[in-house]
Write a structure and sequence with these properties.
Order of helices and strands: EEEHHEEEHEEEEEHEEHHEHEEHEEEH
Number of helices: 9
Helix content: 10-25%
Strand content: 25-35%
Largest sheet: 12 strands, mixed
Number of strands: 19
Structural class: alpha+beta
Radius of gyration: 19 Å
Mean pLDDT: 93
Length: 315
């Protein structure tokens, strides 16, 4: 059972496993350099990793990374994400709140690796660019094996590496009112996809459990989204199979599978994110990512050494 994380520790970025109860991390850098490399390990090598995690959990401290002495980063390096895809209108209850038909096939849009940040990193709202910044909690799927073209549902399931939480930050004015109706600019701003806190592999979070998990979004402690992934219109394996008709998916690619009802743009009156807000996106079995909203231009992707200082300087 592995909860993969990326942490900055002693000046280095290392792959680690979150220990039970969130009590620190086990350094996995001797086994794999990153999540896609971990997914590619043989069964024997993955068992060695699990044995190592168990050993550290039992008190062998030479490979234990204390939470207080490291910074938790996004579980994927944004520079290594080949594709970051999103699925719109993919919760039954989200369609119902808009009084729109349930899509017969996945509604696909794109984000980019440069959207990715981690828990604790700021979400910038630039009043000169957008006045309608919105929140969306989503189940994220991380691809673990190359998905060949025209993959069956069975093959699609075999290619899942794990699950993470995605906050699909959305500038609704650019998504819905500008740019000729194209969603891209409203979805793909720098910092518009906090993910994490970890990637949970399927041996800990099987597909059927991931698709029957509570999903919530809170802003300043107020629960604004509260649903269950069982309400997904198009299930995870069906989404992957559908995408494979058009493109090859690679290890480390991310799919945000859609958001439940309660988003700001469909509230009356609308509830837009503002500087000083703190957004929590949570999925049972995975965890919670927490991101403050700050005023200013979109944040360019910071270097790993400057992430913490960048956040503090903008609050």
């Amino acid at each position: 059972m592995v909860r993969l994380a990326r942490v900055e520790y002693l000046g280095e970025t290392v792959l680690a496993a979150q220990l039970k109860g969130g009590d620190g991390y086990c350094d996995l850098s001797s086994i794999a350099k990153d999540a896609p490399a971990f997914f590619a390990l043989s069964s024997l090598e993955k068992q060695k990793a699990k044995d190592l995690i168990q050993s550290v959990s039992s008190g062998h401290n030479e490979l234990r990374i204390p939470s207080a002495y490291c910074k938790l980063l996004a579980p994927l390096d944004k520079m290594q994400v080949n594709k970051f895809l999103g699925i719109g209108m993919n919760y039954v209850d989200h369609c119902q709140e808009q009084n729109v038909p349930i899509p017969k096939e996945p509604m696909v849009f794109s984000k980019f690796g440069s959207c990715i940040t981690g828990t604790g990193d700021p979400i910038a709202t630039d009043p000169s660019l957008t006045s309608k910044l919105d929140y969306e909690a989503e189940l994220g799927v991380v691809i673990g094996k190359v998905v060949p073209r025209n993959a069956t549902l069975e093959i699609a399931r075999q290619c899942i590496g794990g699950f993470t939480v995605v906050h699909d930050v959305s500038a609704r004015d650019w998504q819905l009112e500008k740019n000729g109706g194209q969603w891209l600019l409203g979805k793909a701003g720098d910092g518009y996809a906090p993910i994490g806190p970890v990637i949970v592999t399927l041996d800990e979070l099987p597909l059927d459990v991931a698709q029957n998990a509570g999903i919530r979004c809170r802003v300043n402690g107020e629960t604004l989204q509260n649903s269950n992934t069982s309400n997904l219109v198009h299930k995870v394996d069906g989404i992957i199979s559908f995408l494979s008709k058009f493109m090859t998916l690679y290890p480390g690619d991310v799919i945000a599978t859609g958001t439940p009802p309660g988003v700001g743009c469909f509230r009356k009156p609308p509830r837009w994110l503002a500087p000083g807000d703190v957004v929590e996106c949570e999925i049972d079995g995975i965890g919670t990512i927490v991101n403050p909203v700050v005023r200013g231009p979109l944040l360019s992707s910071p270097s790993k050494s400057s992430e913490g200082e960048t956040m503090r300087s903008r609050l």
